[in-house]
UniProtKB/TrEMBL annotation:
<dbReference type="GO" id="GO:0035434">
    <property type="term" value="P:copper ion transmembrane transport"/>
</dbReference>
<dbReference type="GO" id="GO:0005743">
    <property type="term" value="C:mitochondrial inner membrane"/>
</dbReference>
<dbReference type="InterPro" id="IPR044677">
    <property type="entry name" value="SLC25A3/Pic2/Mir1-like"/>
</dbReference>
<feature type="repeat" description="Solcar">
    <location>
        <begin position="214"/>
        <end position="298"/>
    </location>
</feature>
<protein>
    <submittedName>
        <fullName>Cu/Pi carrier</fullName>
    </submittedName>
</protein>
<comment type="function">
    <text>Transport of phosphate groups from the cytosol to the mitochondrial matrix.</text>
</comment>
<keyword id="KW-0812">Transmembrane</keyword>
<feature type="transmembrane region" description="Helical">
    <location>
        <begin position="221"/>
        <end position="241"/>
    </location>
</feature>
<feature type="transmembrane region" description="Helical">
    <location>
        <begin position="261"/>
        <end position="291"/>
    </location>
</feature>
<dbReference type="InterPro" id="IPR023395">
    <property type="entry name" value="MCP_dom_sf"/>
</dbReference>
<keyword id="KW-0472">Membrane</keyword>
<keyword id="KW-0813">Transport</keyword>
<feature type="repeat" description="Solcar">
    <location>
        <begin position="113"/>
        <end position="198"/>
    </location>
</feature>
<keyword id="KW-0999">Mitochondrion inner membrane</keyword>
<dbReference type="GO" id="GO:0005315">
    <property type="term" value="F:phosphate transmembrane transporter activity"/>
</dbReference>
<keyword id="KW-0496">Mitochondrion</keyword>
<dbReference type="GO" id="GO:1990547">
    <property type="term" value="P:mitochondrial phosphate ion transmembrane transport"/>
</dbReference>
């Protein structure tokens, strides 16, 4: 960590954005994949709250009835989908943060309203990132919420969805995905920026004089606190994504489907699995910032915040 790369990457150059995009892939693909067993139980409980008594009961039941390998159902779609999403989200955020600060509004005005810049940049980046994620999210949810699983692997899932529903089948959940992911990412990036800045203000030593390890530790703490907020903000939409992908009827519009599902589960049903998601998202978010900022330091870039 202490070794400095011989080649210095110029900020906001094509090489800078490429490095941030690669950092997003490294941060998101493996971390989301690591919690696939937890995500499996969460998604099934969102669709059927009476299916398992707890996470442990869910894993025991899956291993007993379906085999040990089945607790990793949806792993392939998760890894590919969230690697693509991470590329668009992190690389896009760095691009749009600089773009909005310098090209759309007066730079001096933008610096006085950085929170608005963070919100706009993260929302724009996530909008495009979700277009890449959506087909794989649709396959993942179908695999995880159907017993036996909808398909055995991501490639079989791609073929099956396309043969049954065409391209539209991959994007029938795009609106609820945007409703879940855009507020989540706006909260994730903006709260992270604000939290780490608040931490640095309370540390007597300026950030530039802190070691890389100290800065990355701040990123980890800020990421976990931001993750808790993200989980709460995005959870109702997360439930709806799972329900719509598994229960949307043919010919039914998104609004009709959402109304029917909400009538069936009620307001309380939108919060099924929240505690699990807080643990999962808090852990995910903290490790993503840890990995992303560690990667940036490794290639000679400053940490975020």
């Amino acid at each position: 960590m202490s070794e400095k790369p011989s080649h210095k990457i110029q900020l906001y150059s094509n090489e800078f954005y490429s490095a941030c995009t690669l950092g997003g892939i490294v941060a998101c693909g493996p971390t989301h994949s690591s919690v696939a067993p937890l995500d499996l139980v969460k998604c099934r409980l969102q669709v059927n709250p009476t299916l398992y008594k707890s996470n442990v009961d869910g894993w025991k039941s899956i291993i007993r009835t379906e085999g040990f390998k089945k607790i990793f159902t949806g792993l392939g779609a998760t890894f590919i989908g969230y690697s693509l999403q991470g590329a668009g989200k992190y690389g896009g955020y760095e691009f749009f943060k600089h773009f909005y600060t310098n090209s759309v509004v007066n730079p001096d005005l933008a610096k006085r309203h950085l929170t608005s810049v963070y919100l706009c940049a993260s929302a724009t980046a996530e909008f495009f990132a979700d277009i890449m994620l959506c087909p794989f999210e649709a396959i993942k949810v179908r695999q995880q919420t159907t017993i036996p699983p909808f398909c055995n692997n991501v490639f079989q899932g791609l073929s099956k969805v396309y043969s049954l529903e065409g391209l539209a089948g991959f994007y029938k959940g795009i609106v609820p995905l945007w409703c879940r992911q855009i507020p989540y990412t706006m909260c994730k990036f903006t709260s992270f920026e604000e939290i780490v800045q608040a931490i640095y203000r309370r540390i007597p030593t300026p950030k530039e004089q802190l070691s890389s390890l100290s800065q990355i530790s701040v990123s980890f703490l800020g990421g976990y606190l931001a993750g808790i907020l993200c989980a709460v903000v995005s959870h109702p939409a997360d439930v709806m994504v799972s329900k719509i992908n598994s229960e949307k009827k043919e010919g039914e519009s998104m609004i009709q489907s959402s109304k029917r599902i909400y009538k069936a589960i009620g307001f309380g049903g939108l919060w099924n699995g929240l505690l699990v998601r807080i643990v999962m998202v808090g852990t995910l978010t903290s490790f993503q910032w840890l990995i992303y900022d560690s990667f940036k330091v490794k290639v000679g870039l400053p940490t975020t915040g």
